[in-house]
Every structure is written in C-alpha cells, then in structure tokens.
C-alpha cells in the first residue's frame, strides 16, 4: 500500500508430494517461492515485485544481482533460471515477522488435490480518491506535531516559541478556532500536511484553472503556502498544459529595410482560387509584386517560374518563404545554393514572419473575388497588378513602380490630363534630363545666321540661314547656294559674328560661346603660335588656333582637328 502497510489480497498453499518431502530444507524453502510465483503469475509477470523469505541463503542463490552459484544443485539452478524471467527483489525477513505466510505452513492440508490450469481473475478498485472528511482532518491534526502544538496554543492559551513552522499560524492566533477537533482560520479548515496532496487533487479534479482553484480554496480551506501549492499543481498538470492558451505575443521584430530594390523578396502560394494556384513574389524594398498562375505547385514548376521572374529583375540576395514541401525540398535548396541566394524560412505555423507576402495574398484574393464576372482570370489579375503597382504603398508612401523603376506606369487615367498639363509634365521631365546631363538647351530662330555642318567636299562648317524648326531638335537651313539642308541642333553653331567673305568667326569669345554647348562632344583650346603655350581663347589678344576634337562613340581613339585662325 502507499502507506507501506501490508494488505493480503490472496492466500495459497499446498502439501508436499512424497518426493518433495525428501528435499533438503533449502530446496523446500525454494520450492515455496517457485510455487508462489507460478500461482500468482498473472499478478507478477511484467511488473517489479518483492520476494520475502525467512531463509537467508536463498537471497544469494535467487538474488538478481548475483550469479547462480556453480556448486548449486541442478534443481536450484533450474528454479533460478525460471525466476530470471521476472523483475523482482529478494529480501530476508525473520520468521517472527513472517507470520502471515508462516501461519499457513502450520495448518497443512491432509489431501492434495490436482490443480487445474484455470486462471482466476480478480478485479480491484483502489479507493484512493475517497473524499477527505472532517474525521480525517481531526485524526491527522492530532498526529501532526506542528498542528497539535498550534491546537494546544489555541485551546489552552499558552504561548509557544516563534519557530519557523509556527510563525504562519501564530500570526493569525486571534483568528484561529477549534471545532470538533478541527483547526479553523475563520470559516476555512486548516488542512494538516498528510492530507494536503489529496485535497489538492480533489480541488484540481475539474481542471478549472489556477485562478478558479484559488477562489474555490479560499471558500473552504487553507494552509501556509496554499497559493504557491495551487500554482505548482496547475503548472505540473500535463492535461492542463496541453490545453493552455497561446502565450502573450512577443514584441514586434521588424525586418531590416533593404537598401535597394530586389535585395530581399518574399514568396508564398495563394489559392486555390477559381481552381488555380498562384505564386506570389513581393520585393521588400519597393513592394513590387509579381504573380504567376500555377497549374502545379511542385518544386520543378516553382523553380521555372522563379527563373522567369529573376531573368527580368535579377537574382535577389535573400528569399523568405514558409515551410511548404516544395520550398524545403532538396531540389529547391540546390537551386538557391546554385544562385547564391540565402533562403530564410519562417517558423512553422507562424505566418507573421512572412507577413509581406501573406498580406499581399489577402489583398489579391479580395480583389479577384470582387472582380468576378468582369473578364477572364488573367485579365482581372493583370488589371489588379497594374493598379497595385501604380498606387502609393501604405508603408513607404511611394508607388511600387516609382520605387522599382523610378517612374510611374502609364495607365488609361493619364488620358484625363489636358494638353497643358501634359506639356507641363513634359517640360518638367525635360528639365530633369537637362539637370541630369548638365547640358544647356540651345535653339535658333527663323532667319538667324548659323554655321552648319558640311558633309560634302569643302569647308567643314559653312554659313547658312535658319528657315524653320521642324522638330524639338531639328531645323531646315538654306545655304548661300540656295540649297535646303535638314540638320540636328548638334550640327548647328551660333553664327552671330560671321564674316561675309571668309566664313570665319572674328571674335574668339563668341567662338568659345558657340562651342560651350558642345562641351560633351568637343574640346576647345587656343595655342600661341610663337611660344606654343595653351590658354583659353578669351585670354588671347592676338592670333590663336581653335583645335576641335570630335570623339566618336564607337572609337574614342579616333580624332581629327581643323585649325581655325582668329584675328
């Protein structure tokens, strides 16, 4: 029993046969053990038990931790092997303490009946959950030294020493009472230590939780450290731990914002929606989404779609996904390693780690469901993607297209802008290009005298008169021979100070100003013909040469120069 008290559940005995009566005393003692083990085989096999004998030599022969003596009789060795199939401990007990088994040996049966191999089945019901009553409380209150001393202090009024064990009770001395041999604190019964475990089991039988257990306990009983005992009981209950709620959410740990587009991408699968699955790829920097309709979500098909997307935007540095079977396969991992992509997988059943892709999946599903009946799935998906990419994102406040491509995508809404607005936008864009290139915008008026590039035999530059502007950067000019040429603005030079006879510029500063617009095409400097020194044309007071180097885009080493004399 749990209290180490022995309770008999069955008895068995038999008389010795004629041959067994000739056994030695040690063999007859061993025979009794073998008889008992065989008799109660159904109770003993498969569990550990204790063998008690009043014959000390058997503890060495049948002891599980000592080997079978080599000098033991063959019968004893055979019985020792039989017992080795069981898990047991053998212990010696004196005969005067072994009376519950020794008594049957003093009442022998005169006749031995033949035993039948009929197993007798016994059903036992342990009454361990019997309720604790006031009688039990009274009994154990008197037997417990601390509780008995507290009761004497309360009933007799004597003062006790303030020991550690008495301190919790003596602090409530004026509130303690005794009723029917039970110690009470107010209306709550003080449970003695031997009964506290059973009372806690009864309190926790409904698995009502820690808070409710404390509320119930405060209405019935108390002992020092009751709240801590209830907490330990609730935390140690396996059934309660399995059904616990999710813990409090951890503080948010946002992803580091990538420094450039397409550095980290998040992928996920969406669907099934209209019998289709979708592969979603979202850039963490620009929030630019890519969606591919998937007929199969295998690793091979997923890799094909990712290759197609990567061919347009390049390989990302990191790729974040969940733990889908196609994304953790060996084939997909090999694809990641072969392209130098770090694959980051979220924790299982924790979609918040891949929240960027999960949030876009919800937005896409809602949009596609709302647009059902307005065309095919591909058309509705493309319309949604165009609108999403052109809409400022709630996080970055910038449209994904602007962050990804540095421009807004043209939509049908752009047709609503009037021409003036359109012209203003174009002017603004032109100004941005000019600032970017740091090139001065040049234009000519009709009737203005210019130098035009001559691609025929003769001088490199000839005089002409502007006839009209045919485009933003193209003009028609008329030569002195009344020939009409069409030239780009890069093929025209300002000809304000042109000589009527020689076709040469007479002012170096005007010549330099004419060439300043072509600083990205031409190199201009003056050289003193006497000393050989080089200086800017506007510092020259005498004769200089203008050396013009034209660099072709295809061959930067090719150049030619024409001397121009300026007086």
From TrEMBL:
GO biological process, one term: DNA integration
CDD domains attached to this UniProt entry: RNase_HI_RT_Ty3
Domain Integrase catalytic span(s) in chain numbering: 257-408
Keyword Hydrolase: yes
Molecular functions per Gene Ontology: endonuclease activity; hydrolase activity; nucleic acid binding; RNA-directed DNA polymerase activity
SUPFAM superfamilies tied to this protein: DNA/RNA polymerases, Ribonuclease H-like
Region named Disordered: 420-440
Keywords from the UniProt entry: Endonuclease, Hydrolase, Nuclease, Nucleotidyltransferase, RNA-directed DNA polymerase, Transferase
Gene3D superfamilies per UniProt: 1.10.340.70, Ribonuclease H-like superfamily/Ribonuclease H (3.30.420.10)
Pfam families in UniProt: Integrase_H2C2, RT_RNaseH, rve
Stated name of the protein: Gypsy retrotransposon integrase-like protein 1
């Amino acid at each position: 029993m749990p209290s180490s008290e022995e309770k008999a559940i069955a008895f068995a005995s038999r008389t010795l046969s004629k041959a067994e009566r000739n056994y030695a005393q040690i063999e007859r003692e061993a025979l009794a053990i073998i008889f008992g083990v065989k008799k109660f085989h159904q109770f003993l096999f498969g569990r550990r038990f204790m063998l008690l004998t009043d014959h000390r030599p058997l503890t060495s022969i049948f002891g599980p931790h000592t080997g079978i003596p080599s000098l033991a009789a063959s019968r004893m060795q055979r019985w020792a092997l039989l017992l080795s199939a069981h898990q047991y401990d053998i212990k010696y007990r004196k005969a005067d303490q072994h009376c519950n088994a020794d008594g049957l040996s003093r009442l022998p049966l005169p006749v031995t009946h033949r035993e039948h191999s009929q197993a007798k089945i016994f059903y036992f019901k342990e009454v361990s959950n019997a309720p604790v009553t006031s009688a039990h409380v009274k009994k154990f209150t008197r037997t417990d030294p601390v509780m008995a001393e507290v009761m004497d202090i309360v009933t007799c009024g004597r003062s006790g020493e303030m020991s550690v064990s008495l301190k919790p009770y003596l602090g409530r001395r004026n509130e303690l009472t005794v009723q029917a041999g039970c110690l009470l604190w107010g209306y709550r019964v003080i449970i003695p230590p031997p009964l506290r475990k059973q009372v806690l089991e009864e309190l926790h039988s409904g698995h009502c939780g820690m808070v409710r257990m404390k509320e119930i306990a405060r209405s019935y009983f108390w002992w020092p450290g009751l709240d801590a005992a209830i907490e330990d009981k609730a935390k140690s209950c396996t059934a309660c731990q399995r059904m616990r709620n999710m813990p409090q959410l951890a503080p948010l740990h946002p992803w580091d914002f990538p420094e450039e587009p397409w550095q980290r991408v998040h992928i996920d699968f969406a669907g099934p929606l209209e019998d289709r699955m979708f592969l979603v790829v979202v850039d963490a920097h620009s929030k630019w989404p890519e969606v591919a309709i998937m007929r199969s979500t295998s690793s091979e098909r997923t890799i094909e779609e990712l290759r197609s997307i990567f061919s347009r935007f390049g390989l990302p540095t990191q790729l974040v996904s969940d733990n889908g079977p196609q994304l953790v396969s060996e084939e997909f991992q090999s694809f990641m390693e072969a392209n130098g992509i770090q694959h980051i997988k979220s924790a299982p059943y924790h979609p918040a780690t891949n929240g960027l892709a999960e949030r876009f999946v919800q937005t896409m599903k809602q949009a596609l469901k709302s647009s059902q009946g307005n065309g095919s799935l591909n058309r509705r998906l493309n319309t949604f993607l165009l609108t999403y990419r052109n809409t400022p994102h709630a996080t970055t406040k910038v449209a994904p297209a602007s962050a990804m491509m540095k421009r807004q995508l043209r939509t049908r809404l752009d047709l609503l802008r009037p021409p003036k607005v359109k012209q203003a936008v174009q002017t603004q864009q032109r100004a941005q290009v000019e600032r970017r290139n740091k090139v001065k915008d040049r234009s000519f008026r009709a009737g203005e005298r210019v130098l035009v590039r001559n691609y025929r035999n003769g001088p490199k530059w000839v005089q002409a008169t502007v006839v009209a502007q045919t485009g933003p950067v193209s003009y028609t000019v008329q030569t002195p021979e009344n020939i009409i040429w069409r030239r780009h603005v890069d093929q025209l030079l300002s000809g304000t100070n042109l000589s009527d006879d020689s076709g040469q510029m007479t002012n170096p500063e005007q010549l330099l100003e004419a060439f300043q617009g072509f600083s990205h095409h031409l190199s201009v400097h003056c050289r003193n013909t006497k000393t050989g020194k080089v200086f800017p044309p506007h510092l020259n007071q005498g004769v200089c040469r203008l050396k013009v180097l034209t660099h072709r885009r295809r061959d930067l080493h090719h150049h030619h120069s024409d001397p121009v004399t300026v007086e």
